[in-house]
Fold:
Amino acid sequence: MATTHLAKYRSVILYSMSLAVLLLLLKWLEWRFIIVDYAFEIYAGFVAVIFTGLGVWLALKLSRPKTITIEKEVLVNSNEFVLDEGRLTKLGLSRRELEVLQLMARGLSNQQIAEELFVSLNTIKTHSSKVFEKLEVQRRTQAIEKAKRLSLIP
Amino acid sequence: MATTHLAKYRSVILYSMSLAVLLLLLKWLEWRFIIVDYAFEIYAGFVAVIFTGLGVWLALKLSRPKTITIEKEVLVNSNEFVLDEGRLTKLGLSRRELEVLQLMARGLSNQQIAEELFVSLNTIKTHSSKVFEKLEVQRRTQAIEKAKRLSLIP
DNA sequence: TTCAAAATCACCCTAAAGTATGACAGGGAA
DNA sequence: TTCCCTGTCATACTTTAGGGTGATTTTGAA
Structure:
């Protein structure tokens, strides 16, 4: 960006100096009464050149920059767990089934889960079977792994 | 962007029409021998206006777009996992046992782990039993949970 | 109120997981 | 060389998990 600016300024300065030299040259020629007949055309040429430059300058100065948005991934440790409710309903997992899944992930056996939830072992078996069906897995370890991947459990 | 272009084109058209009208007007005036004395200045004005426009056009056409980069934060779970080797040796877990633990965490059954590692099912049972001993747990789900907590697996 | 989904429980059976014990080979350190 | 750890495998047994089926009760939405 800085180099670009410098280059632009250099161009402008060179441009101006060239014009100045040309102007002096013309003035000198005018003094010599040589090109008086062409004074009009030369003047017009000057005007053309100068105003072309003015136009360029105006355009560069006033044109709004064309913005390009670049999404840059910034790594952020987002450890806070947020349950993906959308996926939950999409899979058709009920509250109780999710509850069983969570306790599973904490390493509890079916018996322990049953005691934790004050229901029978058979009930937990039913729930876990449904969880496996809905998650399309065969084992509790797979269920845990998939549930973590799907943001159903932390 | 489209509207901007339309607006620009509209401006150009209006500009051109205005110039045309002005030109006709001047021609008419010239015909009337009124403004003959100012023909030079008017011509110069024309040139100035036209070449300003040319300059603007050139600049817009040829200038590279000024880009503005906008960094957008995208939350990424970048919890790059680093194995806690210290804890590993402290627990006395061998390489093979860790390997079995990792495959366990991916939801594989003992049979699948055995096939993955080209050893017998009994060998995996032995390994997993030792893992449970060293992690002081009773079940594989507990082992997975504890190993994750202890940064032994991702 | 009615009805479907959710939740509960039981029984039976198979598969998988886990425990206990013993054995053997290879590699590396004392 | 000896000895211990690791890795391997086997057998036998118990426990837990998982699948299938059927049944009853609760509950929430139409």
